[in-house]
Structure formats: structure tokens, C-alpha cells
């Protein structure tokens, strides 16, 4: 379900005075929307063809620091431009902002006008095209979890992010009474996002105080990633407009449950048939599905840096809080990194439970798809199903425990280098190395509390 406006419909809305601003935004390495606010009249009169941005947008960190060492952009190259090419298929109204529309944009090389290889949207589009060349449409869905706080973002900034007050005082997983108290925010989240063309299904309380989840209908992989970033942006903005704040950190407090972004995946034939379904199989899984899952398991440790991109991401992987620690598969078992859902139905699918809500969905979905397609191409044999409590099962494949370990495996992955190209792998390995070095460099509150007096 792409955007809900055509360019002609936008022109009519502009003429009627209903739309006066168009956001044109590309997606950066961190999965954030970066771009410009256009006067709507300029956009419809030719601005929709292209605009430009500094190429440092794919060479900065979360703080927008210009990170040295990237091949694509740097001071030695003068930080030139990328072309931002609006994808009019994503054009939509943004109902929570007055008289505003949004259009996502692809990043193109300023000279060749080819898509920038390291841009997240381009990386996913190439894997989608690879799947189609093999005869498959890649269908995916992401579930986004987040915490809501009573504090406004401005208040948190002014107090040094102290005094966080979750909107709920207790675990509200599936809790209707508690979530009723939060309906003034969550109703707007559902209704505004739905009006923006996002096929929202539901919201629910999650497994800790103040934690929520939003679910939206599965779609093709690119549309799912587009929806994901718009949902994340929308939730933040709607909360901000109500004087509250949210976080999509994978683990904002070591005493709390982490926030995930489980990814559901299936392949369908180009004529619309479920390629993962086999009525006669024990779990309803086709040979194609088994090869796909085998590929993801074989390469799980290599792709983890794309599923858990920050040092903080790995603090979510702990026993007993529904985040996985083992990269194995099991049917309808939430202790496994790869859970099979929808057994014996045409909706049978792989749920990867490794990604956190801090993930860049384009990179995450591309990495999962690349690993699965490698499994199909290699006709990899699926390892036996694991059953029971994966947390306390020894001797089985583990999820990398740190970004440092995951980055090393990313760097050495021949599968990802074949699928993405050396330049892409090296680019994101460099991003991971920078995250590690920054975390190693900075003194934390924990260190002060633990060592200032006692050391």
C-alpha cells in the first residue's frame, strides 16, 4: 500500500489551499528521514523532478559528526552533492502536521545519476530485484516496539535525560485498562498513520511499563521498509506534539525489557502463490522455505551488524526477557532467534526475532533477504529444529554478544560481499567501527557511579 496521493491529486490539493508544504526526505545510515521542506507550489511545478543534498548524509554518525575514513565522502573530496530523486509512488499526506505531504527520495550520484550504492534504500532495492530475477516477490512485515514517557523531549534535554517517567507504572502487555489511559496518544498514532497511507492493524501494550507496539500490514519488502521509517517518524512527532516523548532504543534501561523489531518474511511466486507453503510437510514448509531459512541460519552471525547496529543493541540480548540469544530455528517458540509462524497454512513464514527497534529497516531487510536467497541458490540443507528453552541450551549457535564481534563477522562475510559489494560492506563496517570507538572513548554515568569513589 504505497503513498495515498498522486502528483495530480497533490496539485489539486495545492490549488485548493489544502497543502502548502511537501517534505522530501531520503533515509540515512541510521534509518532517519533527512531532507527539505518545499513550498508545495514549487514542488508541483517542477520541484518533484529532483533536488540535491550534501553527500555527507551517508558519512556521518548519530550526532551528525563528519566521520573520517569513508571512501564515498570526506573533506579531501570536498563533500559534494547527491541528487535526491523523489519517488512519487511514496507521495502521501501527513495528517498530524498541518497542510503537509511527504515524498521519500532515492539518492543518486551527482554525475552518473545512478543510485548511490551505499544508500540504504538502494541496497534493499537490489536484493528485491535479485529475488524477482529468481522468480520471487519478497514479502515482509516489521513490528515496532517503543517506550512512551510523560517527559517532553525538551525537558529531557534540559535535565540531562534524567527523571524518565514511563507513561505506565507497570507491565502492560496486552493490558486493555492500562492502554485505555494512553488512548489520547495511541488513537492518534493509529488514525494519523492510517490516514497517511500506512495500513495500520493495531497497537498494544508491551512487556514492560510504558512499552507499546504498533503493527501494520505486511507488504513487499521495499514498501515495508518505507512504512517502517514513516511509522517511526510519525510516532515521535505525534508524541512530541502531545508533550510526551518516545524512545526506539533497543535497551534504554538494563532493568527493563528491550524493544524489538521482529521481521516476518516470506517469498511468493510472481503469479501470487506462496512459495514457502507445502501442505504435506511436517510444518507446512516447502523446500524453498527450508533453503531460505538454512541460508539465514548459516549467515546469521555475519548479518547481525545490520540487525543490531549499535553497542547498545547487544544489551537487549539477555535471558528471560523475550529477546533471543541463540541463532537457531524453532516452530512457534519465542526463545529462538528464528521462529516459524503460521505452520500448516499459506501464511507460513520466518520471524527473525534478532532485530531491535533501533534498526535501519532497509539494511536489516536487505541482509536477511540476501542470506535467505544465498540459501536458495546453494540449496542449503536446513538443520534440525531446536525445541524447548533455547536460553539454557548449550552448544548451539549464538548471536554475537557485542558489536565488535558482529562487525568482524560482517567484514569477513563473503556472502555479503557477493550480495552487496565490497564498497557497501566496507562502508558499514567502518560505521560499526566508529560506533565502537565512540563508545569506548566516552565516560558513562555508570562508570562514574561505580568508580568515582570506589576506584
TrEMBL record:
Gene3D superfamilies: Glutamine synthetase, N-terminal domain, Glutamine synthetase/guanido kinase, catalytic domain
Record bears the keyword Ligase: yes
Keywords of the record: Ligase
Top-level taxon of origin: Bacteria
Residue ranges constituting the GS catalytic domain according to the UniProt record: 120-455
InterPro entries (UniProt xref): Gln_synt_N_sf, Gln_synth/guanido_kin_cat_dom, Gln_synth_cat_dom
Swiss-Prot/TrEMBL cofactor(s): Mg(2+)
SMART domains, alphabetized: Gln-synt_C (SM01230)
UniProt record similarity statement: Belongs to the glutamine synthetase family.
Name this protein carries in UniProt: Glutamine synthetase family protein
